[in-house]
Automatic annotation (TrEMBL):
Residue runs in coiled coils: none
Key words, A-Z: Dioxygenase, Iron, Oxidoreductase
UniProt superkingdom: Bacteria
Gene Ontology molecular function terms on file: dioxygenase activity
EC number: 1.13.11.93
First-tier enzyme category under EC: oxidoreductase
Names of required cofactors: Fe(2+)
Organism: Kluyvera georgiana ATCC 51603
One Pfam family matching this protein: HGLS
Protein name stated in the entry: 2-oxoadipate dioxygenase/decarboxylase
Record-stated family: Belongs to the 2-oxoadipate dioxygenase/decarboxylase family.
Family annotation (InterPro entries): HGLS, YdcJ_bac-like
Length: 447
């Protein structure tokens, strides 16, 4: 086909369209974007070294467009069709998250780009959860929910037709891509009208708020869209000034010289008016705002230490005390690029400098990169964590649910059931980071 648009181009267009739609739907999201842009600009102006580092790692350009969103679906067919839709945008399912350990009746994956160039261009990610109807313990209600879900189609007929066309042609031209983005967006739009009457909504809501959110609407509305900041502590402290009320504490690790994995904060879900089938009206709380700061991806060894320290630190009530406590506990985690590398705690991307390139023949497979780094022949940049944290995700669900989520455990992880619904296995995030490091070493002649 002539003039096929790349998946990266389509993802870029889609993420922009999604951001514009969400800004219209939730004006506070626009305020959040302005706040994050202000803070990022100030950080870059005051920190020439960070500015240079980000520019060298090709991270600067993506920062302004970088977002993640989250959606929840009700059936295997919906999940598998989303998988097709996101594949057209160059997004693959990465990782399996079992939220039932936090008392939330869903399991999830993150659709995101996986290769270096695609991530550099626009690392748009969608955290996607599938409802586990089997966790509704009232059989009549379970059956009713399944019936309601079976009746809806969250994709427009034109969107389905375009996905088929994409498969036949193996791509889209610019016009088709534009139409596809437009149609795909419909799936994630907010609907004020529920598909059920008030009594059904309330029965499902009593079972779990998330069940009502998934089952009662005609689409799978995007429930938040998160920009990336370079200084989350600063954003948290400025939120009130911008008229946004943040949740009490920043989740994840403490502030560090070398930022680790992911830190997140959010504002609470909005109470929005809804019209139920019949005449009744009421409200629904599902959509909220969130900001995140991303750091280096950890190796399994680093992740094990991280998990241990985070659970040792526990949860705090006010942010200041909690952050100070975290700082103390995380003293056990090395905080320099050299130590993280030397102890194999984090992943790095190696590059030859111009002088390294001139001495290529002196670098042999199996060599220790450290002497070359000291000589200025090779640089090692921390690989950005591109995924989500199970603990953090659960925390976000909880704050979103207004703190009354059930805490009982729903039994074993059901990864294979999730993959069967998805129609394919999910990718292993550790493998992706390891592969990125290995590829970069090979390019330098270190492997
Ligand atoms: C998803 C929550 C997970 C994150 O950033 O950890 C998430 C949801 O509430 O549907 O987006
Ligand atoms: Ni999120």
């Amino acid at each position: 086909m002539a003039h096929t648009l790349s998946a990266d181009d389509i993802r870029e267009e889609f993420s922009q369209a999604m951001s514009a739609m969400y800004q219209q739907e939730v004006p506070q999201y626009g305020t959040l974007l302005a706040l994050v842009a202000d803070v990022n600009l100030a950080v870059l102006e005051n920190n020439a070294r960070l500015h240079e580092q980000l520019a060298n790692a090709d991270e600067l350009a993506r920062l302004n467009v970088e977002r993640h969103g989250a959606i929840r679906v009700g059936t295997a067919e919906e999940l598998a069709t989303l998988c097709r839709m996101f594949a057209i945008m160059g997004m693959q399912p990465v990782g399996y998250y079992d939220l039932s350990v936090a008392g939330v009746p869903v399991h999830s994956t993150a659709f995101r780009p996986v290769d270096d160039a695609a991530l550099q261009r626009n690392p748009f990610r969608i955290f996607t959860s599938l409802l586990r109807l089997e966790l509704i313990d009232d059989p009549a209600l379970r059956e009713k929910a399944a019936k309601i879900l079976a009746r809806r189609d969250i994709f427009t007929p034109r969107c389905r037709a375009l996905m088929n066309l994409h498969d036949e042609q193996n791509g889209f031209n610019a016009e088709q891509a534009k139409e596809f983005v437009h149609e795909a967006l419909e799936t994630f739009r907010w609907h004020r009208h529920t598909t059920v009457d008030k009594a059904t909504y309330e029965a499902l809501n009593r079972q779990h708020r998330l069940i009502a959110d998934v089952v009662c609407f005609p689409g799978c509305h995007i429930n938040h869209l998160t920009p990336r900041t370079l200084d989350i502590d600063q954003v948290q402290s400025l939120m009130a000034e911008y008229g946004i009320e943040p949740k009490a504490v920043i989740e994840g690790p403490p502030r560090r010289a070398v930022p680790l994995v992911l830190r997140q904060t959010s504002f609470k879900a909005l109470e929005e008016p809804v019209a139920f089938a019949g005449d009744a009206s009421g409200t629904h709380t599902a959509r909220f705002g969130e900001i995140e700061q991303r750091g280096v991806a950890l190796t399994p060894k680093g992740r094990a230490l991280y998990d241990r320290l985070l659970s040792e630190a526990g949860v705090g009530k006010d942010n200041l005390t909690h952050q100070q406590h975290l700082q103390e506990v995380f003293k056990a985690f090395p905080d320099s690029e050299f130590l993280l590398r030397q102890q194999g705690l984090a992943w790095f991307r190696y590059r030859l400098t111009p002088s390294g390139d001139a001495h290529r023949q002196a670098i042999r497979p199996g060599d220790d990169p450290q002497p070359f780094i000291e000589r200025g022949w090779i640089t090692a940049q921390p690989i950005t964590y591109e995924d989500f944290l199970p603990v953090s995700a659960a925390g976000i669900f909880q704050s979103n649910l207004g703190g009354d989520a059930q805490t009982r455990s729903h039994g074993n992880a059901s990864r294979s059931a999730f993959e069967a619904a998805l129609g394919r296995p999910v990718l292993d995030e550790f493998r992706l980071y390891e592969d990125a490091e290995v590829r970069s070493k090979r390019r330098c002649g270190l492997l």
